[in-house]
Design goal:
This protein is mostly helical and about 190 residues long. It has 2 domains: about 50 residues, no CATH class; about 140 residues, Photosystem II protein D1-like (Photosynthetic Reaction Center, subunit M, domain 1), CATH 1.20.85.10. Helix content is about 45%, strand content about 0%. Strands 1-2 form a two-stranded antiparallel ribbon. The radius of gyration is 22 Å and the shape is extended.
């Protein structure tokens, strides 16, 4: 038996490939020039790029950056904008959800409203990215199985229950904390 290693000892270096030709509507040329990274080639494919985000990709990236920024700045505000304390206490900082007394209304920003807004933009980002994956597969005349697997993962995360009725996964962050468990229990009992 030969000696095998996780790292690739020999890398085939060639001119970077620009991908398949794009035709039809909403198929603009890719925006970046592909390049090779030797370190990435030790573990797999060394080529980075070309990138194509499209409109949905840009909207998804914008929503994610907005959600990430909201969470980050709220955590930074908890330590009075001190970067040293931010790094030191990073694992203990949080953006807390609103209390159940607000129901389905948007809570005041200081009492969980930022959590609602960040959850909304994160959910929008994930759903826009799914739409991008699906549309790219259709535009390139490929199978949509990756998009549907991603949709199944989104659905699975949104329907899981974390030990308490009404507390679902990250997709339901916008709705879950405001559901009154008594309402859900009464619905559950009426179904049975």
């Amino acid at each position: 038996m030969e000696y095998q290693n996780l790292f690739t000892q020999v890398q085939a270096v060639a001119t970077p490939h620009h991908g398949v030709a794009l035709q039809g509507p909403d198929n603009n040329e890719r925006t970046s020039f592909p390049y090779l990274v030797h370190l990435f080639g030790r573990l797999g494919n060394a080529q980075i790029g070309p990138l194509y985000l499209g409109r949905l990709g840009v909207v998804s990236a914008f929503c994610f950056i907005l959600a990430f920024t909201i969470v980050g700045f709220n955590m930074l505000a908890q330590v009075n904008y001190d970067p040293i304390q931010f790094v030191r206490q990073l694992f203990w900082l949080s953006l807390d959800p609103p209390s159940p007394e607000y129901g389905l209304k948007l809570a005041p920003l200081s009492q969980g409203g930022w959590w609602n807004i960040a959850g909304f933009f994160l959910t929008a980002s994930i759903l826009f990215w799914w739409a991008r994956v699906y549309r790219r597969a259709r535009a390139l005349q490929m199978g949509t199985h990756v998009a549907w697997a991603f949709a199944a993962a989104i659905w699975s995360d949104s329907t899981r229950i974390d030990g308490e009725l009404g507390r679902g996964g990250s997709i339901w962050n916008f709705f879950a904390p405001r559901l009154d468990c008594r309402i859900l229990y009464s619905v559950w009992e009426s179904v049975l």
